[in-house]
Amino acid sequence: MAAHFGTRFKQALRLMPSVWIGLAAVQAHAADDARTVVAPSDPAEIVVTATRQAEPLSKIAASVSALNEAALDRRGIKNVADIALMTPGLTLNPNGFGSQADISIRGISSQVGSATTGIYIDDTPVQTRVVGYSSTNTYPLVFDLDRVEVLRGPQGTLFGSGAEGGAVRFITPEPSLTKTSVYARAELTGTRGGDPGGEVGVAFGAPIIRDVLDFRASIWTQHEGGYIDRQDRNPELNGTAPIERNANHAQSVVGRFALKWQAAPNLVIAPSVLLQDRKIHDISTFWEGADEPDGKLVNGQPLAQPDHDRFVLPAVRAQLDLPGVTVISNTSFFARVDDAIDDYSTLVPAVFNPIFNPAQTGPMVNFVPGDPGYAAYAQMRNVQTSWTQELRAQSSDKAARLSWVVGLFASTSQQKSYENIVDPKTAEVIGGPPADLLGQALIDNTYSLVANSQGRDRQIAAFGEVNYHLTDALKLTAGLRVARATFIGQSYATGPFVGATVVGPRTSTTETPVTPKFGVSYQTDKTLYYAIAAKGYRIGGSNTPLSEFCDIGAQGYARVPDTYKSDSLWSYELGAKTKLFDRHLEVSASVYHVDWKSIQQLIYVSNCAQQFVDNVGKAKSNGFDAQITARPFAGFSIDGAIGYTSATFTQTVPGLVQKGNHIDTQPWSGTVGVNYEHAVTAAVSGYGRVDYTYHSRSALTPVLDQNNGGFDPAALPAPETQLVDLRAGARFGAADVSAFVNNLFNTRPLLTRYSEVISNPVHRDFTFRPRTIGVTATYRY
What is the pTM of this model? Predict the structure, then answer.
């Protein structure tokens, strides 16, 4: 293993000279007028657009976290998982389907229906709803971003459906009409027990016609070295199956091109296109108890489970400045395709052995006795397309007592989900011909299931928000959004796994959600106090038909409902933001209470490992979050954040949840970063940084409560976790070179444990990437 790693690492090191030659060439080109880089401890304030108008973060009367380009680099943030670790109240949970994960804010979490958290690239929503069994969000990778904003609490007034619990916004940089800009980053990494990885990317922008036309282009590629081996752990093979080392490696490419055209003195038109392509060779789960003698993690599945997720996002933004008014138009089209293979070689036996072969117990319940070569897999494809148009007008006089924004929004989004299960040996599992035992023969002698589901969301909305200063210090806010939302769904399934062919009815649900917002704030010389009451919602949808042999009587249903309705919540928040000692100390904090009703919940049917959705139960979420930045002396800074969320069901739903059960969150979360920078020479400064993150153990969730039908005696609460990351480096004008260690103590908690079916003895787990060391070089001009 060590020799293998050394060879791969030496190969990766060959990339560094070419990377540095490129950076050196860029630096030489810009040496004459290279600008001074703002140090991490510089108190320059981040400007955000969480209210759809550019405002300093400290002036936003809401709980918002923001990371600008410098902060993203300092902390080595590359993806949404890194953002979640650093942002209390934001949770990212793997959901057991391949590489997929669900995101939530303040405990407003759901694995079904429409999204509860909005995911935005600039002003384009890209979150998905669950259609079929494997659709989930895609998340932009982090390169050449201006900033990331996390908006806590419902954003229904300005952002609409899908931002029920909050929103995460990835804001890309605009081209400049007057300046040339360069950003380059290269990195090499080595993971304990795994393969090396690396990345290289560059962004460049310059005027084509000064003051008239400018462009910015970027390209970035990353290789993530794997660290989990895969070996078929069928007991009948006695460990003789071949081993694929470090199978869970991944390759990503992101590219963007943007123009900015000053078409008239008061008109700017800015088209752009963003592309992302991510290929995962195998998933990052491992089998509990299957570790190699040296502790190396092992995935015991017979087959690899690759995932290829790609999207393209062309958009056009136009801004017209009129006296006292700015008019903005955003038009975008989002197209995404996600192809994946899910290994059903252990799922199919786990479902059918208890029915047709109950003598199979222990680990062998996941396999076919006498045929260690048995294999089955699902070909998954999810296609997502959406067109979005927003037109808004907003006041531009910052000194006026009255400020406002009004707008119109229209979108059409379509999702299609396909699942074809390749299982030519179904007869071996069930002990006879599928036509005799399950009511239908294999399709083309190959497929045990051929299924597709599709859903179309159409929405038009009018919205507005008004702020009025009663005095210089006291401001009132009122907002309203009225939407007309329609969802149309249909599904089809055939094959022995559903018995008779099922053609789901074309279902439709139309609603007119109204989402108001009210706020009051008071600004002193140093402190902002505020209170907010806001409503959020997510639209309903339709269910996919279940297999004929699914028994839903135990769940209290005579039939699966064709559709489910929207759910909604009210959030109440009190907060304050202050700056003390000439901004050497900055603190922001908020407390909140959320009432959530008619929740779209998953109804799990244990005898067939399938599920449907219905509106059942109520919940509440109480908590607080606080952020602090201290700069006691030049070059030294401490930034920290802490959050507490207690999200519980307030109504018993027999067989599903008990009153007092917790929604799947970890109540306490926090992060602390300590940064010190000191000039070594007139041209060089050195720095060091330590980041510590903490998440507490989760409480009693429905799956852990034996009073619920979905109780799984093998399930575990999310554990307490602690992570420590280190980084140290030097800055040479616009260049920066640093070395880092992530997961310093190589912690390996069982973040998520899941099984093929309830009470199955084989557990599949997620954990942190093992200790990773690396070197990063960046250049920003």
Answer: 0.91
